[in-house]
Specification:
This is Methylthioribose-1-phosphate isomerase. One of its GO terms (molecular function) is S-methyl-5-thioribose-1-phosphate isomerase activity. The chain is 40% helix and 18% strand. Helix 1 packs parallel to helix 3, helix 4 runs antiparallel to helix 5 and helix 5 crosses helix 6. The longest helix is centred in the middle third of the chain and has 27 residues. It is globular, with a radius of gyration of 20 Å. The strands form four sheets. A seven-stranded mixed β-sheet has the order 6-5-4-7-10-15-16, with helices on both faces. The protein has a four-stranded mixed β-sheet with strand order 11-8-9-14, covered by helices on one side. The chain contains eleven helices and 16 strands. By secondary structure, the protein is an alpha/beta fold. It has two domains: 120 residues, Four Helix Bundle (Hemerythrin (Met), subunit A) (Up-down Bundle), CATH 1.20.120; 213 residues, Rossmann fold, CATH 3.40.50. Bound molecules: 5-S-methyl-1-O-phosphono-5-thio-D-ribulose (MRU). The site of 5-S-methyl-1-O-phosphono-5-thio-D-ribulose has 18 residues, from helix 2 and strand 9.
Amino acid sequence: MAFQTMEWIGATATLRLLDQRFLPEVVQYRDLATPEAVAGAIRDMTVRGAPAIGVSAAFGIAQAALLAEAAGRPLIPALEAADGVLRASRPTAVNLFWALDRMAGLWRAGAGAAQLLAEAQVMEREDIAVNEAIAAHALAILPQEVTFFHHCNTGALAAVGVGTALGIIRRAHEAGRKVFAYLDETRPRLQGAKLSSFELMEYGVPHAIVVDGASAHIMRRRRVDMAVVGCDRVAANGDTANKIGTYNLALAAQDNGVPFYVACPSSTIDLATPDGDGIEIEEREADEVLRIGGQRVAPEGAPAFNPAFDVTPNRLIAGLITEFGIVRPPFDVNLRALLAGRDGRVVSCGK
Ligand SMILES: CSC[C@@H](O)[C@@H](O)C(=O)COP(=O)(O)O
């Protein structure tokens, strides 16, 4: 692979992130030396995608402990401050809070810097395995020839391993399936056109970038076997927050009889939020809408509204593809059973 989304540089205790803001034109890395810098990189979308955000934040916590220990400062105030600044970086992807809670469980119990770094590295390795398991479960239901519709970027750039939805597309291609993918360009940040296409070009997966508004038309006129997207938070009833435009895509899929799947690690499931109405939706600056590639496309002074995510109601979702299997409706029952199974009890994927 010609790029690596993140890398921990032990010698300098820095987190090296591929700066996704400049892809596909420039492959350039940033070395972040403090948890505040890591939080800034999450906020400005140097790193993005729910799993990648979570693991980056875990390294930010480890970094806080390492810096405090090296300076002989007390650990807990440093960790509390780092936790606060990282928690405030982006609101919607629950993986951020999941990762910070997991790290906080350790440092509140007295873990030191070495143990916190080891835990961040465990999370890094886990993500790789989880991504592979998601792809393997998906492959089991895919035909030999398959055309996908995909939204945003959910691949290696959004994770540590191959990613979720885009990881499925990549692994299906590598497994010898005859794969084609339509990639929504994903306005306003263009993660589909810039990042997902960058990845699929790299892997040699046949695809076409389409404008977001083309999905219903393409599903009506052309072969599409499955829409598959990632997600930032799944509520207890299966309502799913993902990049703005996902809900539109799900509606288009339903109207055209195309099964709509959401691929996610179980760390994206948030049983504490009963339904999608309780999910905070990040609102970003108007300029993302008003400009394309730095160039203003709207009249001077025109207003804009820029919600970065939307919530797809559970009734539009055929299944959630997790590392433990494919969760089918009724999601309220089956998601609880899935997470109970993760703790060693019964696993029911509602197949
Ligand atoms: C496996 S990534 C899943 C989601 O995080 C992805 O679909 C998405 O919405 C990313 O949004 P972004 O704003 O680029 O961080």
